[in-house]
Amino acid sequence: MTQTIPGLHHVTVVSGPPQQNVDFYVGTLLQRLVKKTVNFDDPGTYHLYYGNDRAEPGSILTFFPFVDAGPGRAGPGMASAVAYAVPNGGLDAWVAALAEAGVDHEGPFTRFGEQMIALSDPDGLRIELIETDRGTAGTAGGDAPTDGGFHSVTLWLRNPDRTARLLTDVFGYASAGQASEGGETRYRFVADGQGRGSVIDLMTSDVTAAGRPGAGTIHHVAFRAETDDVQMGWQETLRAQGFDVTPQIDRQYFNAIYFREPGGVLFEIATDPPGFATDEPMEKLGQALKLPEQHERLRDQIERILPPVTVPQRGRGGR
Length: 319
Ligand code: ZN
What we know:
8-stranded mixed beta sheet; 2,3-Dihydroxybiphenyl 1,2-Dioxygenase, domain 1; alpha+beta
């Protein structure tokens, strides 16, 4: 049986100071803080995970709030936008809520037949909210209207051909056409099943300025593997295709392998298990600072270094 990628697992972004990040994603975008931990490779820095109520793969946006991250800017060879799925009819409520929170947005406009708006997070990351009946978009008017998780991620590429072939020939995505928007052209690819985060847009742009990694830019894009065995299958398949794939790395809440796709974006394949309730109960996710075993002995020191963060109530952003 040929295996296929079911969609996104998580997206990881570099951010500025953590408090404004938490205020925006919990207070304004109504995400749940599902894990407060540290960057395992740099335990003096937080790693903050946001997701839907059940902390499901395909809804997880994570941040490294590096103290000294200068402002970044998306450009060719980088992932340039994250889109959340909004249930059909749900966009008006978002427009009103964003106006009330004092957050500017572009749109509404239409892309591939779907209504959407776009905004920037406090560090300039482009966030899109797209109305869709695709997969499991959340319940309109519910407590968390973004419960459907991701709609898509946009990869800004100089030339999409080889990345497109990776998506279709290796990952099992289907080509879903192309569309032009201003000076941009998008090539859409959709994973089998069309669940959370099943869409990838490859974008080329008339803008030729180089991007710059830093706050507000996407560090990597992680796809799902349902089990460790499936992930090991991907490692073998990708290595056979000539990709330089890392060994499996334990990220506590999932296992990860990484490789750079042909357009320059860092890709990860992350396992669904064990998930975010592995070290604290589902109802308490995100409340306590969680450290992996190897850093637990440094807890006092780490807690002194990390700036305090107060989590706002959802829908009470813009303090
Ligand atoms: Zn990751």
